[in-house]
Structure formats: C-alpha cells, structure tokens
C-alpha cells in the first residue's frame, strides 16, 4: 500500500484513505438501520455513492475527513472514522467520529481507534480541542468518549432540532494526553475505569490494600487499559521502579513489589493522595486483576475509602 494513504495504525486496526474497493463496505455501513440509529438513520444510497465516488477520485482533497478502518487480521473494511470540521453554537470545532459495522461491535475497536485518533489530532495535527456529538440515548458511544478521556460539557440542539451531548477533550484538560495529570479528578477517572469494565464483571473490595478489585479475562485487557493510559500519567514496571518517586516507591513496597508483567499506573505525585491502578496478570496469563486505590502514606492527608467504594458501587 502507498504510504501516503495511511493515516495511522494500531495493534489491530489500520486507518487509511479511501480506495474504490472500499465503497461497497461503506455503503453497507451507512445504510444499516442499526448502525445509523443514533446518527440520523440510513443514508440515501444514491447520494452516498456519489459522495464516496468523489472521495475516491481525490482521496487527498480534505485535511479532515472520515476514512475507512481496516481490520488487520482480515483485511476487511469494518468502520468509517476520522476528524470533521463542525460549527457548534457559533464555534468552530473538530469532531472525532467513530462508526463501526455491527459485525465489529463488542471488540473494543471504537475506543482503540478513538484513542489513536485523539493522539494523532492533539500531538501530530496540533489541535487543541476535540469534541464528539452524541445522541443522549447512545450509551455505548458515551462510554467510548469517556474511555478516551472526554467529558460531557452540555446538551445542545442542532440545526433541525436534534438533541446532542457535547463531549470534549482539551490539551489542558485534567488527565489529558499532554502528559499533565497533576489535577485529575479521581471520581471522573474512576467513572471512566468503571465504564470500561465488562458488563458481566463485578467490583469487590480488597481489604488488604483498601482498594476496589476487578478480575477479568485477558481478552478484555485493551478496553480496560485505554482509560488508564488516557488519565494516569505514569505506568511503572519492574524495569522502571528503581526511578520511581519516593511516594510511588513506598506504594510499590506496600503492594509487595512489581513482578515482570505487572504494571502500576499512577496519577501525578504532586497531589496527594495519588490515584493508582495495580495491574496483575494471573491464571497462566489468562486472567488479569486490577486494584484501584488512593495512596498518600502521610498522616495529614485524607484517603477517602468510603468514597472510593461508592464510585465503584461497592457496598
């Protein structure tokens, strides 16, 4: 493939400019009533084909656009995602859009490509702010927005009367992708982690570490890791623990150390207590447990365990 056509790639997906062979899959996507349920319904096939033909004729025409998402394993086009220029309440915005075929649902693909697009926009394109416009009943899309670090700002009424929730992320946002995690809101981060958990999973309380505990299959790891990488600035391993700040080093000792394969995600040590997530594979690598806690190791800093329980719905 011509390198100019590739926008970005992730572990499982490739985002690239359109080719003539993509048209059939994209027409099927946008004419599917279930896929377009919260996006205005199925598109007119004739108009859709005309628009896609224009894109094929000049795939480099627009700086911001929707591009085909190719599943690496199969080579099939399974989505249409990208960045679009929008005017919202008189303000010029860049919207991050993720649309996937029904056959691709449930694999964490939207959060995977959404995170990659977020980084592409903020780091490579120099965009300071991203939004997503989400229909209020589209809970799945809201969970994706939360996983990639967005927060709901407000509800608006679009031209034509459609109600949408504005989810937004800025470079200066707490816990954003600019590397600054000093001012994160622990409750919001915990909400994003909880939203990423498999629907059948149940949170419990680990009294040994005063932390919320979740166990899940290794196949669910990608969806869980996304909010951790989005919101928590540091990830410590057995190889890097020697350079950890004092408070993190004390936390590592309290957790019993860091073995190969284990991870410790932490918020900035500039603000106590720090929020941490201990990531521990087990069961011959088939299971992962995470413990989410607050740590200060200082008598004058309150560690609100009861609030942490409430954030994860633990009695």
Classify the secondary structure makeup into a structural class.
alpha+beta
- The total number of structural domains is 2
Q: Uncertain segments of ≥5 residues (pLDDT<50)?
A: 173-182
CATH class of the largest domain: Alpha Beta
CATH architecture of the largest domain: 3-Layer(aba) Sandwich
SS field, number of helical segments: 8
What does this structure look like?
- This protein has 315 residues and is α+β, with helices and mostly antiparallel strands.
- It has two domains: 3-170, Gcn5-related N-acetyltransferase (GNAT) (Aminopeptidase), CATH 3.40.630; 186-311, no CATH class.
- The chain is 27% helix and 29% strand.
- The protein has eight helices and 14 strands.
- It has helices at residues 23-30, 45-57, 109-124, 139-147, 186-196, 221-231, 246-254, 305-311, and strands spanning 6-9, 13-16, 66-71, 77-88, 91-100, 129-134, 151-157, 163-170, 204-206, 211-217, 234-236, 263-266, 274-282, 287-295.
- The protein has a six-stranded antiparallel sheet. Strands 1-2-3-4-5 form a five-stranded antiparallel sheet, sandwiched between helices.
- Helix 4 (139-147) packs across helix 5 (186-196).
- It is elongated and about 65 Å long.
Helix and strand topology:
Elements: E1 6-9, E2 13-16, H1 23-30, H2 45-57, E3 66-71, E4 77-88, E5 91-100, H3 109-124, E6 129-134, H4 139-147, E7 151-157, E8 163-170, H5 186-196, E9 204-206, E10 211-217, H6 221-231, E11 234-236, H7 246-254, E12 263-266, E13 274-282, E14 287-295, H8 305-311
Antiparallel strand pairs: 1-2, 2-3, 3-4, 4-5, 6-8, 7-8, 9-10, 10-14, 11-12, 12-13, 13-14
Helix pairs in contact: 1-2, 3-4, 4-5, 5-6
């Amino acid at each position: 493939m011509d390198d100019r056509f590739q926008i970005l790639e992730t572990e499982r997906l490739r985002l690239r400019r359109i080719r003539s062979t993509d048209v059939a899959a994209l027409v099927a996507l946008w004419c599917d009533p279930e896929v377009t349920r919260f996006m205005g319904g199925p598109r007119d096939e004739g108009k859709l084909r005309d628009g896609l033909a224009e894109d094929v004729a000049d795939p480099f025409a627009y700086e911001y656009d929707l591009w085909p998402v190719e599943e690496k394993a199969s080579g099939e086009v399974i989505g249409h995602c990208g960045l679009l220029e929008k005017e919202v309440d008189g303000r010029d915005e860049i919207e991050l859009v993720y649309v996937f075929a029904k056959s691709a649902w449930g694999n964490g693909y939207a959060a995977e490509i959404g995170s990659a697009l977020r980084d592409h926009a903020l780091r490579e394109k120099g965009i300071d702010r991203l939004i997503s416009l989400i229909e209020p009943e589209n809970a799945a899309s809201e969970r994706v927005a939360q996983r990639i670090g967005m927060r709901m700002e407000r509800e608006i009424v679009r031209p034509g009367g459609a109600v949408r929730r504005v989810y937004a992320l800025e470079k200066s946002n707490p816990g954003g992708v600019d590397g600054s995690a000093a001012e994160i809101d622990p409750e919001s981060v915990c909400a994003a982690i909880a939203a990423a958990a498999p629907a059948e999973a149940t949170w419990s309380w680990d009294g040994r570490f005063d932390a919320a505990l979740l166990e899940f299959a290794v196949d669910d790891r990608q969806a869980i890791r996304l909010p951790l990488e989005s919101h928590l600035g540091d990830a410590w391993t057995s190889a890097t623990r020697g350079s950890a700040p004092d408070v993190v080093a004390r936390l590592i000792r309290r957790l019993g150390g860091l073995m190969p394969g284990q991870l410790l995600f932490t918020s900035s040590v500039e603000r106590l207590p720090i929020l941490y997530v201990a990531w521990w594979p087990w069961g011959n690598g088939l299971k992962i447990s995470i413990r989410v806690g607050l740590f200060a190791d200082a008598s004058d800093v309150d560690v609100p365990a009861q609030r942490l329980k409430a954030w994860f719905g633990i009695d």
